[in-house]
Amino acid sequence: MSGSDVVARARELIEQGRAWQARDLLAEHLETVRDAPALTLLGHVHHGMGDLPRAGAAWFTTGVRGPEADEAVAAWREQSADDFAVMWRSIPAPFRDEPRPPRIEALRARALTSDPDLDKPASPLLPDGAGPDAVVGQAPPDDEEPSGLDGAQVIGWIVAAVFVVCAVIGAVTVLNWVVPHA
């Protein structure tokens, strides 16, 4: 589907009261395509849904001006606590590619001062900011050695003890069947 087809379809969905579907359609399209009209419309959809920070990111990227855009950009900056690296990453990837308008280039330059690794590709398997040795879903190791037993160890020892007792009882029972009594 071409960019104009996506925008037309999104407008139809909005008119039908299905803004969330328009949002999803536009967001999916913008993952791989640099399409300013689609991003501008996505900003309007986010604004209409009450998501001012995302509307602000979209409108900042496309250069939309006006009171609504200014309010949304302010919300975007507030949500990201003016962390320029966070703001940079909230812009769709195709718009981070060159050539970039001066406002996007300025954002990138400020983001690079706070995060020199900004342009390194992130691994899809690692959380943002995690190094290559990080394991998803696991906290970084502490400097302290864990002390004491945890619940899993206690349960493991109990299960092992029960298994040994049952094995001994079973062996004695089998021997009583096999060996004749005098």
Question: Could you please describe the fold and organization of this structure?
Answer:
The chain has helices at 3-15, 19-30, 36-48, 52-62, 67-79, 84-89, 93-96, 102-114, 151-178. The radius of gyration is 29 Å and the shape is elongated. The longest helix has 28 residues, at 151-178. Helix content is 62%, strand content 0%. It folds into two domains: 1-124, Serine Threonine Protein Phosphatase 5, Tetratricopeptide repeat; 151-182. The relative contact order is 0.07. Helix 2 packs antiparallel against helix 3 (36-48) and helix 3 (36-48) packs antiparallel against helix 4. It has 182 residues and is mainly alpha-helical. The model is unreliable at 123-140 (pLDDT under 50).
Strands, helices and their partners?
Elements: H1 3-15, H2 19-30, H3 36-48, H4 52-62, H5 67-79, H6 84-89, H7 93-96, H8 102-114, H9 151-178
Helix pairs in contact: 1-2, 1-3, 2-3, 3-4, 4-5
Transmembrane segments: 154-179
Keywords: Membrane, Transmembrane, Transmembrane helix
Region (Disordered): 111-149
Indicate the CATH architecture of the largest domain.
Alpha Horseshoe
Question: Count of DSSP E strands?
Answer: 0
Structural class: mainly alpha
Q: What is the CA-based Rg, rounded?
A: 29 Å
- State the end-to-end CA separation: 90 Å
Question: What is the typical, i.e. mean, pLDDT?
Answer: 84
Q: What do we call the CATH topology of the largest domain?
A: Serine Threonine Protein Phosphatase 5, Tetratricopeptide repeat
The oligomeric state is single chain
Q: What would CATH call the class of the largest domain?
A: Mainly Alpha
Determine the fraction of residues in helical runs and give it as a percent range.
55-70%
Individual helix count: 9
- Low-confidence parts: 123-140
Q: N-to-C SSE series?
A: HHHHHHHHH
What is the total number of structural domains?
2
Sheet having the most strands: none
Q: Globular, elongated, flat, extended or rod-shaped: what is the shape?
A: elongated
Relative strand content:
under 5%
Region (Disordered): 111-149
Transmembrane segments: 154-179
Keywords: Membrane, Transmembrane, Transmembrane helix
